[in-house]
Amino acid sequence: MDASIAVSREGSIATVVLNRPDKLNALTKAMWQSLGETIDRLSADDSLHCVIVRGAGEKAFSPGNDIAEFESERANKAQAIEYGGVMHATSAALARCRHPLVAQIHGICVGGGLEIATLCDLRICGTSSRFGAPIKNLGLVMAYPEMVPLVRLAGADVALEILLEGRIFDAQEAKDKRLVTRIVADADVAREARATAERIAEGAPLVARWHKKFARRLADPHPLCAAEHDECFDCFDTEDFRIGYRAFLAKEKPRFVGK
pLDDT digit string (tens) for 103-113? Predict the structure, then answer.
């Protein structure tokens, strides 16, 4: 495991850290690969209920890919295809993660950092956070797999605005563009991300996974089949459903077991 991706755990909540603070958490090829492997491993852990993704320190979530690595890793099309394959595999891992993902955004969230954040389910940032994708200045294209979450959140026209102008914009504009879920004071970002994760983790984990699955499926324009409609009622045969409604009637806090 690449040391620049750090993982910690407290109860049913894991925290994944882009851990390269001396470079503001700029992403290397090895980091992309390690991040994807980490997310896949956590996704398979049924004892987890939520995952927080953040950058080390409070200066940056990530400014994107480390440009210093381009000469050795992305100097031509063949190398770029290989590098892109690693990035896109990690994007796919984030997109299919069964657990809710909360992006804890301090400071700069640009380029590849923004791509990672947009693949999270909730995105919480500070008032001084900055966003953008100024890759036009590098002569780079944002490939189809990288554009998917940006277009999904902001729409094609706003995604084009971000890419064609290449501006760096503030937290309020990012929220207006639907790129962030919530803005809080800089000093409160970690606290709010943790509180959000705890609220998620207190719910029935099977329900959270179903809701993620259903939301992804609704992005597919194909009609729902009978089996998919039927799956909406599987929750009524779970132990967590019985725990939940009985706790409600007893005016107690439910303690879900994920079954």
Answer: 999 999 999 99
| Residue 163, amino acid | L
Give the model's pLDDT for residue 2: 65
**Order of strands, edge to edge, in the sheet holding 60-62?**
60-62, 108-110, 130-132, 169-170
Cα distance between residue 40 and residue 93, in whole Å: 6
SS3 content of the chain, % helix, strand, coil (to 5): 50, 15, 30
Average pLDDT, the chain: 94
DSSP for 114-144, please give it. HHHHHTSSEEEEETT-EEE--GGGGT----H
The secondary element (H helix, E strand) that includes residue 60 is strand 60-62
pTM for this one?
0.92
Question: What's the pLDDT tens digit per position in 81-120?
Answer: 999 999 999 999 999 999 999 999 999 999 999 999 999 9
Domains of the chain: 5-200 (3.90.226.10), 204-249 (no CATH)
* pLDDT at res. 1: 52
Residues in the chain: 259
Q: Is 132 left (phi over 0), alpha (psi -120 to 50) or beta?
A: left
Burial category of 169 from C-beta neighbours within 10 Å (exposed 0-12, middle 13-18, buried 19 and up): middle
Phi-psi region of 37 (alpha: psi -120 to 50; beta: other; left: phi over 0): alpha
